[in-house]
Amino acid sequence: MTDLHTHAEEIHEQFTDQLDVSVDDVEERLDTLVNEYQVPISEARRSVTNSYLDEAGLDREDIGGGSGGNETVQAADVDAPEEWVDMTAKVVELWEPRSDAVAQVGLLGDETGTIKFTKWSKSDLPELDEGATYHLRNVVTDEYQGRFSVKLNRTTVIEETDEEIEVGDDALEVEGALVDIQSGSGLIKRCPDEDCTRVLQNGRCSEHGEVEGEFDLRIKGVLDDGEDVTEVIFDQDATENLTGITLEEAKDMAMDALDTSVVVEEMQGTIMGRYYRVEGPTFGRYLLADEVETLTDAVDPEATLIKARSI
Q1: What is the DSSP string of 260-293?
Q2: Is the pTM of this model over 0.85?
Q3: Beta bridge partner(s), residue 137
């Protein structure tokens, strides 16, 4: 059984009571996105699910994760959107919601670190208390600008527990040479929807379809300390400070060359092989660069290229 067929079966199971759709139909939609448009499977799955939600007139929280049971995860395990999971976590902090659609928002924590949560107003779920610990069943993961979170919806089950949890520190500091700049770096376009801002793939947002994207800068880099490698995401501010290239300059470079790849090439000549100290929170496999310091050491560019090709 192919991976696409497995994903298709899981999506199909969510809509069997609402739509007359076959597993083959679902798989065909996934195949078009993944193999024709080169959309990552996680985004293809989200796009197909959203299209069926529209057809059925449902909201995302109206469907659950299926009858197969959810994986129990910890905060640091969340590394992909649109996955239905269970978790046990302590409410570390509550914030003031910015929208009437949100009942509560804040941080959940466990031994591996913290993760943002959102509880929707229409979910009609009980209030979570700061400092209390809960078993949370059937929550859905989400991603926003590289940061993962979980959402509590009307299918979520909340059970308070007396279990004691020592919340871990998920901040990380690493030093090393920048040995690779990954695909998806440089001048990119994001969805203009203020609640989305996902990176576009071939001009398409996995949530909102074809949109006129907004330009942004980022670097997805790999630091090597001689023993381990760490994948790091530098946002626009960090990228501008690191490379000396502003967003407007990057847009001008790309327009002059009629090619956005020139921006990454320019960045590579400036930062590849240099040493950096980076500190920030970890989300999935990435460290998000909050603090960046350039160190004085440098490495042999040829050796750096050889190392990058081996990653």
Answers
A1: THHHHHHHHHHHTTEEEEEEEEEETTEEE-SEEE
A2: no
A3: 157
Instruction: Enter the tokens of residue 161.
Output: 């527990």
CA-only gyration radius of the chain, Å: 21
Angle subtended at Cα 12 by Cα 9 and Cα 18, rounded to the nearest 5 degrees: 165
Q: Left if phi > 0, otherwise alpha if psi is -120 to 50, otherwise beta: which for 284?
A: left
Greatest C-alpha distance within the chain = 63
Cβ neighbors of 36 (< 8 A, separation 6 or more) are none
Q: How far apart are CA 264 and CA 260, in angstroms?
A: 8
Token duo for residue 29: 């939609």
Q: Which amino acid is located at 61 in the chain?
A: E
Q: What is the pLDDT of residues 165-196, one digit of tens each?
A: 998 877 789 999 999 999 999 999 988 876 66
What stretch of H or E contains 44? helix 41-56
Instruction: Report the C-alpha gap between 114 and 74 in whole angstroms.
Output: 9
